[in-house]
Amino acid sequence: MAAADAIWSRMKAARLTGPRKIMWADDEDLRNVGLSRQKIRYARALAGARIDYAALRQAPLEEVLKILTDVPGIGIWTAEIYAMFSLGRADVFAPGDLALQEAARLLYGLPERPRERELRVMAVHWSPWRSVAARLLWAYYRIEKKREGIR
Q1: How are the residues of the chain apportioned to helix, strand and coil, as percentages rounded to the nearest 5?
Q2: Domains contained in the chain, number
């Protein structure tokens, strides 16, 4: 989280926060704010994807996830987190998140972390409030591990 916050602060300071600015910036400018070569490629792919973010607010979750994961560098975890936090969806869960897996292990007294598929099945029972369940698990993780996950 600290590294992401630092990069975002440098991007804002350098005024590199819009799609056109990312597309027009040279690699050196983007490296100077802390983006790796791979992150530069992903940022440019996202900037060039021309996603209608306003339309995502009304789109079904499956469509949102498809649109986002079609962009190189965006996986299912990123798409689910975006749907939860940026779109404010109440019934999304990111079972690939290690903090959620570990929190579920601790909460249920499991001998090992549930794998993504297992946690996805567990989360079915929390619908239609899976995003709320995720926030509770992250809070539980933060307290139990004394480490910060997603805020």
Answers
A1: 65, 0, 35
A2: 2
